[in-house]
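Example record

The entry below shows one chain as it appears in the dataset: sequence first, then structure tokens.
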Amino acid sequence: MEDRKLDAALNEFNELNDCNALNDSLPISVVVLSHNEAANLPRCLGALRDCDEIVVVDDGSTDDSPRVAAACGARVVHHPFGDFAGQRNWAMEEANLRRDWVLHLDADEVMTPALLEEIRRRLPALASGAAGWVARKVMLEDQWLKHSADYPVYVPRLVHRRGPRFTMRGHGDILVSEPAESVYFSEPLLHYTFSKGWADWWQRHQAYARAEAGRIQAGGAPVSWRALASGDRARRRAAWRALSYRLPGRPALRFLYAYGLRMGFLDGAAGWRFCRAMASYERMIDQARRAARKPVT
């Protein structure tokens, strides 16, 4: 069974390569984080064939992830997972990357040719202290959740090896310090967050909710009134997120915001399901916060 899955994954990788014209190497190193991602890696790595170096950081997969990654042309290194930020920082410091500019991806994220071309075009003008931010198109199967997933949400993905490092904020990773320059790429990447099915999504988000609740409980979500109107998109979004934690009925508000104000209903049945799931995620955060406040007896 595993051999058949591996063959199918490698066939997908070869089909992606057959569909892409080979260009001059893009002078970046790509770091892909992986844990039991054998099904996702061919799609992810197949889109990176024009990059100079691809390094998969595996944290002890029990499936064929390392074998699939190597068969797709990636160099595989192993490091125990602490958190996303730690894995990315470790790769930049210890994985002997060939290039100075590093693109960071998760295995369920896929670069588009247009985004890679934009990086190629803008890379020579980037200073070493700069950071490149990319918006993610959240995909449910092959449907882009254009409205219900609050597009565009930007995440830091392209950094210099001697530039900013990552740190965790709840379940997500951000930059430790403000970069000398924030570059927002106009082309997005694709995020197949449901690629392992809904059961996996729920399991991951239960862990994310506990991490987010822990951050809030530790005082990690202060409201900055100035940041609410900041011209920096990431800072402004974080400020509004922090403010939301002080509002009653957050799960319902999250649903009304995404499905109504952001017109998630235009995404059809997928939008309805996603908006309800995200409301449930907010409810999980609230439950985790209440549990954290209970005294230990």
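Notes for this example: The two ends are 49 Å apart (CA to CA). The chain has two domains: 2-191, 198-293.
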